[in-house]
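SEQUENCE WITH STRUCTURE:
===
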Amino acid sequence: MRRDGLEEEHCLQMSAVARQRQRVNIEERKLLKREFYMDKHQSIAEGMYWNKAIETASATEIQQIQLERLQKIVQYVSQSNRLYKTRFDRQGLEPANIRTLEDIRLLPFMGKADLEEDYPFGYCCVSRDRIREIHLSSGSTGKPVVMFYTEEDLDQWATCMARCYNMAGLGKGTVLQITPSFGLFNGGFGFYHGARKAGFFVIPAGPGNTLRQIQLANDFRADAIAGVASYGIRIMEVMREKGIKITSLKKGLFGAEVASREMKKRLQREMGIEVFDIYGMTETGGVGTTGMDCHAHDGIHVWEDHYLVEVVDPDTGQPMADGQRGELVFTSLTRTAFPVIRFRSGDLSRIKSRSQCECGRTHLRIDYIEGRVDDMLIIKGVNFFPAQVEEVLMSIPGVREQYRIVLTERDGAKDAYLEVEVEEGIVPGRIERELRQVLGFSLDIKTRRPGELRRSAGKARRVIRLGDPEE
């Protein structure tokens, strides 16, 4: 009996061990699924977080973080920079006046023209010996806007980018091909800083030489590609023309310009990748600083612990209710060298949701950028954005990705026509009808053969004036 009892106990122990091993094996298989791509559109890490506690914090927790950081940053810039101090003094404002998040409305707005004041170090809040890097964006008066970076700022930028990478399902060891330039434009360095922090294998290809780009991606089996959307389109075109693929490629992170939903769908379909819309600007610290969409592709998550976002009426500056379109305004809560306070971005969007996303993240989502305040065109009494034209064009089979709106003026009357590359058999009348249904009027259409319009390795120029150098 004793032996039988021991055997029974031993069997039970062995059964428990077997069950434990089975559980371990299941967990190992789950881990493998997270560590290796399972198919073209689901990567290791769908739902991965860089900092889960922060990315899934409650609304109350996020608001508390924002208020503490807003109060500190207002105090900091007031003490560190005479221009900020002067701006606040003009409003009769003391840092102690910021008691709630709503009190941010007491602070004055900033625009590009303000940031060019006392160029180049005007709003810099640190001594020169702490600066490690600069990047530039175009200004409004001919002077560039300079963004300065301390070691802390570079780490903040890299952290925001690492969050974006994880949100796209890209983990340690990912092979990332970076296509923007490594220069004063922030794109190349932003993707690079984040990739280093996330532990990626980086291919710093830079722009241009598209056939070589494709060869590099195939040689090193790139998992993901990063750049501006229009260069992704160029890669897609060359792949189509040459009948080649990048078989390893799973993800594309594209930003720096507005791309319509239909254009993103076409990139996704023809390149066989999942396309993410990454957001950021030089004034907030660069690409990825203000967020990206997740695998739900239902708006851009703004990193609210680093940035406070408002939506205001472009004309009056008054706050817009959630769901209403307006101009995005950003306040940097964690940057050191040059934190912007209520910077009017010129980008048009709306608060899409403050609810928890299906990806688990709780940071609010803004809608995809519709255009810029200064992008709006008024032709024949109708207001529209170039992205609306693109949306129509990309919905028509046989219409290619390259187009441009050419503005003309005669005897003071403004007009425009549309040049667009099409495949054989596509007639202008079809495009005119589709545009009329969406815009309420149609542009004159001039069709071009594939390859006729000028390409760019950088941002595409979709609107030109007749007589511009490109014309």
Notes: The radius of gyration is 25 Å. The chain has three domains: 1-35, 39-373, 376-465.
